[in-house]
Amino acid sequence: MNSSDLILRDLILGIFILVIILVGPAVAAVFLNRRHQSRHPNGHPYGWGYYLGFCGFLAPLLWGLTNGNFAGCFLAGAIIYYPFAILTLCRNRWGLLILTVLSINPIIWIINGFYISKRWNQMATKNPSLLPPPPPQIPQAKYFLHLEDQVKGPFSKEQIRALLTVGTATLDTQCCKEGTTDWHTLVGSGALRE
Fold first, then answer.
1. Is the dihedral of CA 182, 185, 189, 194 positive or negative?
2. Phi first, then psi: what are they for 165, rounded to 5°?
3. Cβ distance 130 to 159 under 8 Å?
4. CA 131 distance to own-chain centroid
5. pLDDT of 12
6. If you ran DSSP here, which 8-state letter would residue 187 be given?
7. pTM value?
8. What does the DSSP assignment read for 65-91?
9. Torsion angles phi and psi, residue 40, rounded to 5
10. pLDDT one-digit tens code per residue, 81-101
């Protein structure tokens, strides 16, 4: 092969690698962002953060390919970049901030300065909008009580305990679970069980 063929081969290889490094993280970031948006429709998009997280994995490899020290750059990436790239992919604000500083790129610093400032509170570790919704609450049983020759209620178990404490009701007070017609004493009805 002559030198012009080697230059052409290196150029094609370089363009191929650059496309993989730019397009691969972008496609993965779009996928993760769509998944996040479908799970958290009220949350802010995080596509740029996902993109930077994936680029944090690829940057040391690109440096290794360009300077000929692939193993050294991979090791440096594993020690320095990869932990913060993982944190960034997990929407950790400190991971994104440190990965931004490690980029050693003033343009990225400026872009991410605006990006991080808008999402700093949302990327908090225990942000309620990022947590799954709480399980539905099971409605508590309520009871009608026969007090002072009248049927009163319905009362929750906590309210019945309070009535017992102040002496308005006793363990022998008749009660009926809401939705039924059977009357029992409080002690025999299950109204005092947890």
1. positive
2. -65, -45
3. no
4. 5
5. 77
6. H
7. 0.54
8. HHHS-HHHHHHHIIIIIHHHHHHHHTT
9. -130, 75
10. 888 888 888 888 888 888 888
Asked if residues 91 and 49 have their Cβ atoms less than 8 Å apart, the reply is yes
Q: In sequence order, which ranges of the chain are alpha helices (DSSP H)? A: 3-39, 47-67, 70-76, 82-89, 93-102, 106-119, 157-166, 186-189
Taking CB atoms within 8 Å and a gap of at least 24, the contacts of 173-176 are 173/145, 173/146, 173/147, 174/145, 174/146, 175/143, 175/144, 175/145, 175/146, 176/143, 176/144, 176/151
Q: Side chain identity at 161, as an amino acid letter?
A: R
Determine the pLDDT at residue 194. Answer: 57
For residue 184, the cross-strand partners are 175
**Which residue is it, tokens 């929407």?**
91
Q: In what order do the strands lie in the sheet with 143-147?
A: 150-155, 143-147, 174-177, 183-185
Each residue of 152-166: b (16+ CB within 10 Å) or e? ebbbebeebeebeee
Domain layout of the chain by residue ranges: 3-130, 143-189
